[in-house]
Amino acid sequence: MEHTPQRASHERRDTQAPLDERSDADIQGHRLLARLGKHVLRPGGAELTKILLAWAGVTGADVIELAPGRGLTAREIIDLRPRSYVGIDSDPQAVDAVRGIVAEHGTVAVADAAATGLPDGSADVVLGEAMLTMQGDKAKNAIVAEAARILRPGGGYAIHELGLTPDALPGDVKARIRQTLARSIKVNARPYTIAEWRSLLESHGLVVEHVATAAMALLQPRRLAADEGVCGAARFAKNLLTHPDARRRVLSIRRAFRTHRNYLIGVAIVARKTGTRAPRAAT
Hints:
Elements: H1 29-35, H2 45-56, E1 62-66, H3 72-79, E2 84-89, H4 92-102, E3 107-110, E4 123-129, H5 137-150, E5 151-164, H6 171-185, E6 192-193, H7 194-202, E7 206-215, H8 221-242, H9 244-259, E8 264-273
Parallel strand pairs: 1-2, 1-4, 2-3, 4-5, 5-6
Antiparallel strand pairs: 5-8, 7-8
Helix pairs in contact: 6-9, 8-9
């Protein structure tokens, strides 16, 4: 599967340039953590991603990854030997980084997740992590609609996002959590309950097949060691100690997560597009 999507005018991420030159006090939370050496930025950690990939069935499949970012999951996908890999990201720097990772095993293009430019029915698996959460309701719907469009019948849309629990969480509590996150990470994050994620996917003709959750423990020592390794976690801690502005920001983000720890979770979902998958010619 070889496609070269056209770049869309709508950018998924904050486009105020230059992003990487902003101060530690002003940069978005996920970019700050990456600057400090935090590689795994998925809400449920690396282990939940492994579960998601196993459910999605990427081996031998045509895979499209939306917003691959630093390319950690792209590397895991390539290791599982898909039939093909296409990465779509609105950030040219991310695209260059992921190209270096997938090399001859796939292609990566600058385009918007809501308008990839790829043909209908291009993929057996569409995957995205920690990106729908960052969108408003309208953008979430646009991205899921695009994922459904480029999936083949029987294909799976696999997401790993920030979730809220329980499903009956009052609206005022949801609003308070979103306000706290916006102030600390400087992104208008809008996590959903599992019921809301399910409803979003089902509204675009997808049938939820698997759901798993994990604690939202992104900045907890045990998760840091599990995701980054002992040496990686130590480097991250050293960078915090030597960058006071960054340390203050990270402590603020950690406080926000801890304040709402009873309500925040990582959630992984695989939803299938209805219909029977047609057989493909061998390559």
